Amino acid sequence: xxxxxxxxxxxxxxxxxxxxxxxxxxxxxxxxxxxxxxxxxxxxxxxxxxxxxxxxxxxxxxxxxxxxxxxxxxxxxxxxxxxxxxxxxxxxxxxxxxxxxxxxxxxxxxxxxxxxxxxxxxxxxxxxxxxxxxxxxxxxxxxxxxxxxxxxxxxxxxxxxxxxxxxxxxxxxxxxxxxxxxxxxxxxxxxxxxxxxxxxxxxxxxxxxxxxxxxxxxxxxxxxxxxxxxxxxxxxxxxxxxxxxxxxxxxxxxxxxxxxxxxxxx
Amino acid sequence: xxxxxxxxxxxxxxxxxxxxxxxxxxxxxxxxxxxxxxxxxxxxxxxxxxxxxxxxxxxxxxxxxxxxxxxxxxxxxxxxxxxxxxxxxxxxxxxxxxxxxxxxxxxxxxxxxxxxxxxxxxxxxxxxxxxxxxxxxxxxxxxxxxxxxxxxxxxxxxxxxxxxxxxxxxxxxxxxxxxxxxxxxxxxxxxxxxxxxxxxxxxxxxxxxxxxxxxxxxxxxxxxxxxxxxxxxxxxxxxxxxxxxxxxxxxxxxxxxxxxxxxxxxxxxxxxxxxxxxxxxxxxxxxxxxxxxxxxxxxxxxxxxxxxxxxxxxxxxxxxxxxxxxxxxxxxxxxxxxxxxxxxxxxxxxxxxxxxxxxxxxxxxxxxxxxxxxxxxxxxxxxxxxxxxxxxxxxxxxxxxxxxxxxxxxxxxxxxxxxxxxxxxxxxxxxxx
Lengths: 266, 433
Hints:
heterodimer, A: alpha+beta, Alpha-Beta Plaits, four-stranded mixed β-sheet, two-stranded antiparallel sheet, about 15% strand, disordered C terminus, B: mainly alpha, Formate dehydrogenase/DMSO reductase fold
């Protein structure tokens, strides 16, 4: 749990995903894989072994025609703030080698591939299944290694990886800002690849604490909820939906309970 | 052929029988070694683990074997700290079992992690907030303690003991064994507990999460208590097994009875705590996260309430009742049943706190995950069992593990005149074929 050593504004990067706009096209998944050099196998049918930093789930309301309704839920890493939003994310607290760490500068939970020795305790801790293990070494089809992104290290076998909110883009934006003599980033200077790829604009990314960013206002909506809110993981990804049944699908409830908004939990 | 290595006044089976036993166990071990190398060289895709089942057979085997090996630290605690001197007649075997259990756990861990060559990071880049860090440190230190406790036994081999240096070394080590027993008990309290903490701190997994005392979830204390309670059951079960295989009585009834009685009361008190914890978890903690108790045991093909019955009733209350009741405890069949059920009970508890944790869905739109280990996982889990059998075989044959064995199994043609003479200083006697 490092403190920032520079006199720099603390950011809290997060996402608001409008579930009423998501069409389940999967562009976010593809963009993420391409951007982050995510490895894949020849046969990807076993989804329990697929590495998908961003994964789109599909849920249905359980009714039959004409009342059936479906919803797609894109799920990146939640970059959890932990029980008191103090950096004790479920995964960060348990890693025995500090291979994953919470940054107060960005609010992002990092993953250090060269430090990780693959005990998978963080995977056991994460309730969102946002963490993936390299059960194989990556094998790129011939020629593909030339099109890998040079800004993202490829991972070796036996280590855990997860969504980093395209942290390399943050680093590039910070470099550019530094050259220009400033240390704050504008909203459009740092955006994740899934946000940019989404054709319906369902994903909004920015600093949750910055009132000039779109996510700041969106997350205060009465239709904003977080996945597994009551576990107190304090995730940084908010979901917007006007549909009651979708809201109820974002957390576990006892038979006689009603879901509350994310705002009500603050 | 190897009679010079066999302890004085004791009879052992013919060498060819022993060689056959070692050979068969060795072949099984070799199968495990092959699987181990496959995992090391081809990576962990050799297992049936996946991103839902990151903890599986190996982690369960680790936790179970460490719990069962708890007989070593608890017997040591009872003998050296509490002063139950009769346990000196079973403590050597308990130490040997503990040594095998802990070396097995370390071996399995070396195979289980994704980057074994980076295993030392857990010491060098330790995260003080992680329960697993505490486990690694205390487990390693305790394994060193067990090694120190095992060495005097090796030095007491008939031929090795003839060397004055080793004779004196083993004697002096025995004199200070109390320090190691106390250290072992201290270390065991923490690592047994931290293994419980590994599951209990997972606040993202309502099935595993517990509140507790400061940083320690209740599972910390429950795991230490259950290891102390059920560890002796494993020691007694393996004593019974060895007696059956060798057709000999190795430990007197009063020693067995004492350890069984203590184990019984430990299990009984543990069950009280465990039942309270289970009730609180089911009635308060889980509902706080939106789960009912029955949800954790429904809507899947494997994990049902039979697990609760097996762990708490068959593996908890039944052995507790048998072992705390004198008449039942002194019935050989019931005693054997009780200690076996005890081992099953603690193993089931470890299974639930590792594998069921992974299986239970937390996201409302996900479903139960089921898992069957691959043959490589099974082989590498059987490997330590085979290695344990080999080490027990060699140790029993050549080392005076059971102080009461000679008294309980007198042999008629015993003569020790030739071996009673001490060698001249610095001169070894030739081994008699």
